[in-house]
């Protein structure tokens, strides 16, 4: 099974199969408690029982329904403000620091998912999924609108609609930027290491 080549991966909806979801959750815990060759083989045995669209639908559902969003509730609003920064390099620096503030389990999951999205985009000639396509689909899952809904109760009409559209645009931009720059966002930046080393002297 090479899902990277499947046209419309993550775009075409599959079945949100409850059995598949339960099996994947079980395998997730198995792998993280024992990342052996046997557990890896068991994961592929289960995955090969389902089509790629079902697996992607369950993954989107998993991300969307996390009790604490992947970018974490505490940092979600900080992420959504990044597009307001006019300098792109400063945007990357801020995203880098925000990601380093995320707890280990969420950060590791985010890194793996962004790596997957980038890999999918690298096969866009076969799967027809560009970074823009992926960001459009995944942004609502990475940026659930819980906080917006609370605020929108106090808004009316056009103002509320403008706020929703602005948030959608910003969440798309951040998701796209995370995918494009995932290789540099999960490491402590050199300038910060240099500052720490200077303080130790």
UniProtKB/TrEMBL annotation:
Coiled coil: none
Highest rank taxon of the organism: Eukaryota
Rho-GAP domain span: 1-186
Gene3D superfamilies recorded: Rho GTPase activation protein
Keywords from the UniProt entry: GTPase activation
InterPro entries with a match to the protein in the record: Rho_GTPase_activation_prot, RhoGAP_dom
PROSITE patterns, per database record: RHOGAP
GO cellular component entries: cytoplasm
GO biological process per UniProt: regulation of actin filament polymerization; regulation of small GTPase mediated signal transduction; signal transduction
One Pfam family cited in the UniProt record for this chain: RhoGAP
GO molecular function ontology, one term from the record: GTPase activator activity
Name listed for the protein in its UniProt record: Rho-GAP domain-containing protein
Species this protein is from: Medioppia subpectinata
């Amino acid at each position: 099974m090479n899902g990277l080549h499947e046209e419309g991966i993550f775009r075409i909806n599959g079945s949100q199969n409850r059995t598949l979801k339960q099996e994947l959750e079980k395998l997730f815990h198995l792998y993280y408690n024992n990342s052996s060759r046997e557990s890896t083989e068991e994961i592929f045995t289960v995955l090969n029982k389902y089509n790629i669209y079902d697996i992607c639908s369950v993954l989107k559902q998993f991300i969307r329904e996390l009790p604490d969003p992947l970018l974490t509730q505490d940092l979600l609003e900080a992420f959504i403000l990044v597009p307001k920064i006019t300098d792109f390099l400063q945007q990357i620096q801020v995203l880098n620091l925000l990601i380093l503030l995320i707890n280990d389990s969420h950060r590791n999951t985010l890194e793996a998912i962004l790596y997957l999205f980038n890999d999918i985009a690298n096969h866009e000639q076969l799967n027809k999924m560009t970074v823009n396509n992926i960001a459009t689909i995944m942004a609502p899952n990475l940026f659930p609108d819980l906080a917006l809904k609370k605020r929108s109760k106090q808004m009316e009409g056009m103002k509320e609609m403008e706020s929703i559209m602005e948030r959608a645009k910003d969440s798309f931009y951040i998701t796209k930027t995370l995918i494009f720059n995932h290789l540099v966002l999960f490491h402590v930046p050199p300038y910060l290491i240099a500052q720490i080393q200077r303080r130790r002297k």
